[in-house]
Amino acid sequence: MGQLYLVRHGQASLGAADYDQLSPLGLQQSHRLGEHWQAQGLTFDAVIIGGLKRHAQTLAGIQQGMGTRHEARVWPGLNEYDSEALIRAIQPGELVKPTTPEGYKQHFRLLRDGLTQWMAGVVSPQGMPSYTEFAKGVTSALDHIRQQHEGNVLLVSSGGPIATAVAHVLRVSPETSIELNMRLRNSAVSEFSFNAKRHSLIAFNSVPHLETPSHKDWVTFA
């Protein structure tokens, strides 16, 4: 029996020229998670991450907080979908970066619509795989973990892949994974137990490292 800890990256840089970069708060969230686990005496037997900068930066923050260093296997199937490509697929033209509360609301409304149509096979966003191929990249990582690992495994990825993994384990519809995706908090931990045959959900979207009064303002979603 093993335990798989799935961590969404810390706060990235929504609205900036390069989203794939942790914000200063994102780095703090990651470091704080590592401190929390270090205090619990948690250790990992294996680490798997997506190939994006924010995944590697989140892992680095966790490691710094834990005072340990783990060699990580990079799994490209754990990379996030391209939100800009999804939005352009349903709203051609120049994509305006959100800078206001209403702009962010509109961004996520369009993203939901794009995700729904992509999952249904209605649109094929430029440069992106089909949703079936995207989901296969996520489930292949879960299969690998079941077949090759025991003990505690850390997986660092993004909201889309983690929501897809949870939806797969719970056997719910792809559309339900959109709702899971939109509720995932930065540096949140979801947990599966696993054996050679299956994964089982133990916890979803928890932020125990941010539940103290001094860290309540560190909870973010984007």
From TrEMBL:
Q: Name one Pfam family in it.
A: His_Phos_1
SUPFAM superfamilies given in the database record: Phosphoglycerate mutase-like (SSF53254)
Positions of transmembrane segments: none
Q: Name one GO molecular function term.
A: phosphatase activity
InterPro entries named among the record's database cross-references = His_Pase_superF_clade-1, His_PPase_superfam, PGM_Phosphatase
Source organism's superkingdom? Bacteria
> Could you name the Gene Ontology cellular component terms for this entry?
cytoplasm
PANTHER family noted in UniProt:
BROAD-SPECIFICITY PHOSPHATASE YOR283W-RELATED, HISTIDINE PHOSPHATASE FAMILY PROTEIN-RELATED
Q: What is this protein called?
A: Histidine phosphatase family protein
Organism listed in the record: Limnohabitans curvus
